[in-house]
């Protein structure tokens, strides 16, 4: 089948699923669940040929579709995938069926609305990764907030309303400034080229003066840094993760967080390369703080979900480190680690959800010796934990190793600090695992726990397969990203050559000059 | 003496206005002959009149001329705005029919008032002369004063009417004095002549013209509830009967902005450097005060009142830009605003039920579950008002902010988007109430009459359609 058509079909198939679900009577819960699972599985299966027909060694956008949408403002429906987005696209299509599988027993209230919201979310996420037009991207980006907000707020834990509102407002603040930046970029492009367009690829060709670049970079970076989440903008994450239902946490961790890092790769680095180089130190510092802080805080958590939430901060710190290293290894490692984190942390939340369904508690002290009553769970959970801490042979190792090599080439101090993060990761994960799984059974309830059923085993094993595949033979995946990564690095290197890094300081003067620029016609503010 | 040769094209140019005003006056008499029990028919006849008016409007499509010797403009702007007013009136009438189930209403007086107020609004949109603007403004306002106080047994309604009338009279006084001063300076109150005069002579040349324009801004500012002329809005919106509030919130605001567009944008490059500053300040104040005050409201009508103040602020951002995107973005936003607000007010009316007792937000608890359709419409309207894609509110705000950005108003756009984020909190609070709380004990299924169902359906469909495929409408506006 035509890959372009496949791309559009997979983006909108979940939306079609939403519309069909509207007609299901809400009592037929089992049917609704199966149908939603079916739709998401079909979406995933249809995206596999996309992955296979994706040509490695090509850095251009593939499967591009262009349709005229709002010519009045120059926004078009343009979607396509390149090395940076193909893996994330696949990850999304893969994790949604798993998350839906996980919801089968967890969601007993308003199942129909839940599945509708979930599929709507899937379309939003697939759209974000494939959009090549700024307006289209922004629409998908914001449109994703509503279903996530509903999922946390309706089906979440006790403090769900607080967590949901915090999540929405926090994210929207960033996105709001990004909207202003998008508009500014749009008119800047018109100034330079005389064309009104929101096409992202056209933006890549702009050479924006340094002063403006800095502020545009920061506006976009704020939106993405909140999503990543980069320290210190991470405070929404623990609340959102803890209060969300299991499947919500899985998707939040596996996909939504990646949108932040994806944004950096898609927008900040290519469109504002000089500014990216200028801010490298800052992002290194924040990333490393995130790694160490996230890891240390995870160590002292009693609630497993909060532990995994903070570990996400740490893991994504690694990804940010790799991205801003701007070396082949760093970037490849960063992209791969995005996928790895999605798989490992998604699986962690999945496992936590399974055990929560049985015991209705997430406190580590309520467990102990579970491996005796749930051996299958214990083995799979061990694999997932080891993957999260980066044991060689698992996916985590490949990603983290590439990132650290890439960073080491640029800045040895930060690489060493990052490595320390891995050690602390081992501490909190293994210690948590020991307290929960090994030893004697301290609580009587744990003796009678039922081990995983087929549905749960299938969900975990699907992820485990990829854990080992990426860990042992990652080049299936890294091949696809290599060309785009090299292309991106070339662009940044060119900027490094062009840029005379006068020691500009972000002060009030440069800010004023940014305001009083020649973009204004009416002379107003 | 001005000698004007009246031709048929002149009268054809005001066909919609004529149809509506004739219907309005006829209905006053007609009501006497219809027995009290069948008075609801008057509403349907009124609707019929509106449809006839819309047909008249369609006849004028594509025309571009001045009628009555430059006094009335018949162009794309007036035609599209006329459609907006007619739709507002039609929706309000449908809401009124439902409202009469909850509260006793005198249709015999109410329907003509709506029709005549709409005529006034349409006049304001078709004006080519300051006196026509004044004429339309007064026709609309006086009808609205009466409609605000229509529930004579309710003290809040009477308070609303009195407040609106007193403050409105003062505002009209300001407006008239401003018109007089401008006339004194320019020698004519014709908008074209004013434009020519001020293109040749600078605005600051004559103090009188400055004062005149300032007074005009005060007058219009009151009508569209700009800060600091907004004090009347929450009380008047809260006290008026629900359909009247809906009608005022959309129609009066649209009419006010139509007049602002005619006077300040179309007829002149009035927004020279200094005047842009004033509108800038007003826009920022209006957005911010509107949004911040709405955060603390617990009554849905007051919240929607402050929300409409905030939206006037966003519209003013579009006016500030004064470039070729201004008129399309403002009119498009008014269209989107029409559907968002009508949907929200329709739901508020249904939830408010008998005697409008249930207008506090806690009556919305669990609405998404006890009445799924109503809850869905309200949720979509709230998301649209907050500016979430893919609802039309996002495209509207996007368009307004682009027009501001094109003229270089970076900070205004930043303040605008931050205000949008602030507004998310109080709009989402309704969604939270509807979906994240269980319905109260004994929450009944609300009966929706056919007319209201139509309003709800059209609102939600239009919001989603304009949000995903706005181009059909955006194209229309490029005929200006």
Describe the structure.
The complex is a heterodimer of chains A (525) and B (480). Chain A is mainly α and 525 residues long. Chain A has a domain at 279-500. Chain A contains 22 helices and two strands. In chain A, strands 1-2 form a two-stranded antiparallel sheet. Chain B is mainly alpha-helical and 480 residues long. Chain B has a domain at 272-480. Chain B is built from 20 helices and two strands. Chain B has a two-stranded antiparallel sheet with strand order 1-2. The longest helix of chain B is centred in the middle third of the chain and has 32 residues, at 155-186. Chain B is globular. Chain B starts with 7 loop residues before the first helix and ends with a helix. Chains A and B meet through helix 5, helix 6 and helix 7 of A and helix 12, helix 17, helix 18 and helix 20 of B.
The number of distinct helices of chain A, counting runs of at least 4 residues, comes to: 22
Helicity of chain A, as a percent range: over 70%
List how many beta strands of chain B DSSP finds. 2
Number of strands of chain A: 2
Helix content of chain B: over 70%
Number of alpha- plus pi-helical segments of chain B: 20
| Multimeric status of the protein | heterodimer
Separation of the first and last Cα atoms of chain A: 53 Å
Sequence stretches where pLDDT stays below 50 over 5 or more residues of chain B = none
- Which strand order spans the largest sheet of chain B, edge to edge or round the barrel? 1-2
Largest β-sheet summary of chain A? 2 strands, antiparallel
Order of helices and strands of chain B: HHHEEHHHHHHHHHHHHHHHHH
Structural class by secondary-structure content of chain A: mainly alpha
Beta-strand content bin of chain A: under 5%
Overall morphology of chain A: globular
Gyration radius of chain B, in Å:
21 Å
Molecular shape of chain B: globular
User: Mean pLDDT across all residues of chain B, rounded?
Assistant: 88
Low-confidence runs of chain A: 518-525
Biggest sheet strand line-up of chain A? 1-2
